[in-house]
Specification:
The complex is a heterodimer. Chain A is mainly α. In chain A, about 75% of the residues lie in helices and about 0% in strands. Classes of the chains: A mainly alpha, B mainly alpha. At the A-B interface, helix 1, helix 3, helix 5, helix 6 and helix 7 of A face helix 1, helix 2, helix 5, helix 6 and helix 7 of B.
């Protein structure tokens, strides 16, 4: 093996009669740059450029021929629907992230409690919602919530409760989209927290037990501080993803009833692609940017801090 | 895994010595199982209900019987979908797109990760951070400018990108490459420096180091990144919805929603069958490669 490599190399290095250009091309940093070049092009052409292009688009009029400055934004600020979308986006993201984190934390403890043999099986089962493409699983929820054949309402009727308009009533529809998002995202938190729980040294719990700590004190003084980093990073990451969520709301309600469940992404889609007003859609989607930047800064800080600790 | 084993090991003697502690543990265990069953029901109801509905005829679906039980199971929904050319087209398009995107992702991200993890060049540290930031830029921020960009591109060159399935090959890598690169940087960085220094000493060049040392050693990471790229491109919903319209170009999730739902007539048996079959490839991959899947999932937050 080694011999083969060496002879291979000799063959390659033999005709290296170097001209300046050749030497330049063979320098380590040059090779590295060319290896990273496709990545660089992809990021700059298809992520960075469109992001700035969105800002440019947001300053044009509907036919995209005239610069109108900030009037798209002032137009949005005057619309009742816009503020409704802002409120709904925040409600949707914050409550969904909170319950995802909470359920993930609780279930991770239950999985961690049971004997190691069975953990794999349970973990495998509980992660299934995360594996199914959200657009597909939301279809299942849509069917479970169907106005006339809802399987949930059938169960409720057994206990004598009236039919719930899961997607027809504004409040229930808001509840439903959050419920689905929690259902879809909680397994992700579960897996993360389970991995974090396993990395907490057992001695800490032993020491706490000897000191007579109750289970609540063990969680508060041992588990939570040890998991702080991972909790922070999953919550921030999930906040970004949840704020930008499109699939669930689009499939379940498409923003209805009367725009009550629209979030930024779906409303931007409605205005920009379906309504044909690209600048207005771009302006709406740009409102996701501050939240995104805010979370990204904290995530980066966390990564840098951990990088420094490691080295 | 080791932590869990440690729990068990040290739990055994405690149980023998202290009666009350073992009783506590037994109750804790019972409650854990009880709640795990509750949560499992919550998490597994929608996929199970998909399966139940997929076995029903449309007649049974609209009957006023127990919706949670199949009285006359039938495979007619499956047969109908698997022989319908539109559904097969969606499935084929999805498969082609996902496989190509996986290849493109790997070709871009593995060399880039190697360069960023091992070979310093001007701005490489900044680029590594930038890669991670790019991963955080959501599709819902980019689809409108991309849509307009493709329209402008059409005006300039006459090449129509909108409503062609291969436009997805251009946009999906923006979602998969950053995270795949990030995972691979983590795995590559964990390979001991001595290994490639020894190879360099023996006169190996960078291509050889990458192909003969890094890729074999970081194979678990490579598999995790591959699975990630596949599942992301399989599940992507917004881009095809925005960029594709004609049924012969569509991919699965969008295809099911736009063609099986005809106006107000919902053929739920077929929709559920289609959704279940559409969810099958990621589920099968997950069933066989669960550990790699989870490794990829946790790598984003624990590495780096």
């Amino acid at each position: 093996m080694v011999d083969a490599v060496i002879s291979d190399v000799r063959e390659l290095s033999a005709p290296r009669r170097k001209s300046g250009m050749r030497r330049m091309l063979q320098r380590k940093s040059t090779i590295a740059f060319f290896m990273a070049l496709p990545l660089l092009l992809l990021i700059s052409l298809l992520v960075l450029y469109p992001a700035f292009y969105a800002v440019h688009l947001a300053t044009l009029n509907k036919s995209m021929q005239r610069f109108v400055g900030l009037s798209n934004f002032t137009f949005l600020f005057k619309r009742e629907t816009f503020w409704m979308v802002v409120r709904q986006s925040c409600l949707f993201a914050l409550s969904a992230v909170f319950f995802k984190a909470l359920i993930g934390f609780i279930v991770a403890h239950f999985v961690h409690n049971i004997p190691a043999k069975g953990q794999r099986k349970w973990r495998g089962m509980l992660l299934i919602p995360w594996v199914i493409p959200p657009a597909m699983s939301t279809l299942a929820w849509l069917w479970l919530f169907d106005p006339s054949y809802s399987a949930f309402n059938w169960i409720l009727a057994l206990f004598g409760f009236g039919p719930v308009a899961w997607t027809g009533d504004a409040y229930w529809a808001r509840f439903s989209v959050i419920l689905i998002n929690v259902w879809y995202g909680a397994p992700f938190f579960l897996i993360m927290y389970l991995a974090a729980l396993k990395s907490v040294p057992e001695q800490l719990y032993e020491a706490a037990a000897i000191d007579g700590a109750s289970w609540w004190q063990r969680i508060w003084y041992v588990t939570l501080p040890m998991m702080r980093n991972i909790i922070a990073i999953t919550v921030l990451f999930s906040t970004i993803v949840t704020f930008a969520n499109f699939d669930i709301v689009q499939v379940l309600t498409a923003g209805g009833p009367i725009d009550k469940t629209h979030v930024f992404a779906t409303w931007a889609f409605r205005l920009g692609i379906q309504g044909g007003d690209i600048p207005l859609g771009a302006s709406v989607s740009l409102f996701m940017f501050p939240i995104l930047a805010f979370c990204a800064i904290f995530i980066l800080r966390d990564i840098h801090r951990r990088g420094n600790e490691a080295s | 895994m080791t932590a869990a084993e440690a729990t068990i090991d040290h739990g055994a003697p405690t149980r023998a010595r202290y009666g009350s502690m073992s009783r506590d543990r037994r109750w804790a265990l019972r409650w854990s199982y009880f709640f795990l069953v509750l949560f499992a029901i919550f998490f597994l109801t929608p996929p199970l209900y998909m399966f139940i509905t997929s076995l029903k005829t449309s007649h049974e679906i609209s009957a006023a019987t127990n919706p949670w039980w199949v009285f006359h199971p039938t495979l007619s929904n499956y047969i109908e979908l698997l022989t319908s050319s539109t559904y097969i087209t969606f499935f084929r398009n999805s498969a082609i797109v996902s496989i190509f995107v996986v290849c493109i992702t790997m070709l871009i991200s593995v060399p880039a990760a190697f360069a960023l993890a091992r070979m310093r060049f001007w701005g490489s540290a900044m680029l590594a951070t930038g890669v991670f930031l790019t991963y955080l830029v959501p599709d819902s921020l980019l689809f409108i400018p991309l849509f307009k960009m493709f329209a402008v591109f059409n005006e300039w060159t006459g090449i129509q990108l909108i409503n062609k399935w291969w436009v997805l090959l251009i946009v999906y890598p923006t979602l998969t490459v950053p995270f795949a690169t990030w995972i691979m940087i983590g795995y590559f960085a964990s390979i001991p420096k001595e290994l490639d220094e020894a190879a360099l000493m023996d006169g190996a060049n960078y291509r050889q180091i990458l192909m003969k040392i890094f890729i074999p050693v970081a194979l678990p990471g490579l598999i995790a990144a591959t699975i990630f790229a596949f599942t992301v491109s399989w599940a992507q919903f917004l881009y095809p919805l925005a960029f594709l319209t004609s049924p012969d170009q569509l991919v699965l999730p969008v295809g099911i929603i736009t063609t099986l739902i005809k106006g107000d007539v919902y053929n739920w048996g077929q929709i559920m069958t289609g959704a279940l079959l559409g969810a099958a490839p990621p589920l099968i991959i997950y069933a066989f490669l669960m550990d790699y899947y989870i490794a990829g999932l946790t790598a984003g937050a624990t590495k780096g």
